[in-house]
Amino acid sequence: MPPVERSELNIAPWLRPLWDALDFANFPNAILLHGQAGIGKFAFSIELAKALLCESSDRLTKPCDHCEACHWFNTGNHPDFIALVPETHRKLLPHGDYESDETPKKGKTAREDSDGDGAEKKEKKNISIEETRSAIEGLSIGSHRGGNRVILIYPLEMLRSDSANTLLKSLEEPPANTIFLLLADRVDRVLPTIRSRCRLLTAPRPNRTQGLAWLKSQLPLIAGLQAKEGDIETIYDEQGGAPYSVLDSLRARHNKDDKDELTISIAASRYLLQSMAQGGRIAWLDAAEKTHKAQFSFLLATMQRWVSDLLLVTQSGTPRYYPKHIGTLQGLSQTAQLPKLLHFWKSLVQARRTENHPLANRIQLEALLAQYQQIFET
Questions:
Q1: In this prediction, what percent of the chain has a pLDDT beyond 90?
Q2: H or E segment at 168?
């Protein structure tokens, strides 16, 4: 039977084949959806959670968006939907009330409430062990509506080791009617013991034509957001072909919120690129000083993409992420020493393994940029 057309599904077109292949009648107790960041995995998982909780009798049209369960889900109040995400990601949940001043944030302890801003910054990008334990302990109680219970965890690699071990125990002995939807941008950072207990689903990245077409269809839906086609294509390449990341970047540029973390990171990334374009003349101390307050993972990704293009051009290839900078890259390739460039690439890969840890980002940036300068020294 051909898949039922559901134009209202909030699923990117390149992920529809993945959706159509799902068997809701024999759904596993845990799936691990993994793929590049910014390609629509989270929106896909939200729609999937709603479908698994939908109470429509026709499984081919789930989610129906008409039953009481769908209504509760859309308003962020379904009692059998649990989302374990960092504070930095809670705004992505459907109509959640996590930012209410009247209700303490779920999983937040009295100590966290009383600590200063420094403690808050250390916690906000991770899923706390208290929150994980609270969710897991509640699984021993039957679901509120007698159907499925869905636990969404994103991004899975953000779980601390103690939280991951708590999750592992539940995956080993899954409670009845409980489904875990686990999402990871980097599946290699997920514990092998967790991976082995899930059905792995790989989220594909769209081809360039499909991704750009989707982006252009989304722009009119955001009030006041306008962008030149050339700018969209440039950002698309810089973001590695991740349409949702491009949309976030365009939205941040439109809002011009100087305190927004993404806005800060985008501006820092631009400055970092300008600095790295100087090759051996890079003012690495200045570059680290002016960029270290941005998301370290964002900066590392920028450096990795630039070095990837430099490696390609050095070996007579074509840049993937920064094609408009081919002239600069070709100039740098004339003085870059390939052994040092390859060694620097390995340093970036190593740094990305610990990019979410509360380490001294400025010191790491200084060390990396100083090493980058040495690539061009004889």
A1: 48
A2: helix 161-172
Whole-model pTM: value is: 0.79
The pLDDT of residue 106 is: 38
User: Is-contact 269 300, C-beta < 8 A?
Assistant: no
- Cα(297)–Cα(287) distance, integer angstroms: 16
Length of the chain: 378
Residues 48, 54: Cα–Cα separation, whole Å: 10
Q: Between residues 57 and 41, which one has the greater pLDDT? A: 41
Omega before 13 within 30 of 0, i.e. cis: no
| 258 or 212, higher pLDDT | 212
User: What is the four-CA torsion angle of 109, 111, 114, 120, rounded to 10 degrees?
Assistant: -80
| Torsion, Cα of 8, 12, 16, 22 (10° steps) | -80
DSSP string, 64-78: -S-SHHHHHHHTT--
Strand partners of residue 159: 127
**Cβ(303)–Cβ(368) under 8 Å?**
yes
Instruction: Encode burial over 149-159: b for 16+ CB neighbours within 10 A, e otherwise.
Output: bbbbbbbbbbb
Complete domains list, the chain, with CATH: 13-202 (3.40.50.300), 257-374 (1.20.272)
Mean pLDDT, the chain, whole residue set: 83
Q: How confident is the model at residue 8 (pLDDT cuts 50, 70, 90)?
A: low
Our separate counts of H helices and E strands in the chain read 17, 5
Give the angle subtended at the CA of 37 by the CAs of 85 and 166, to the nearest 5°.
35
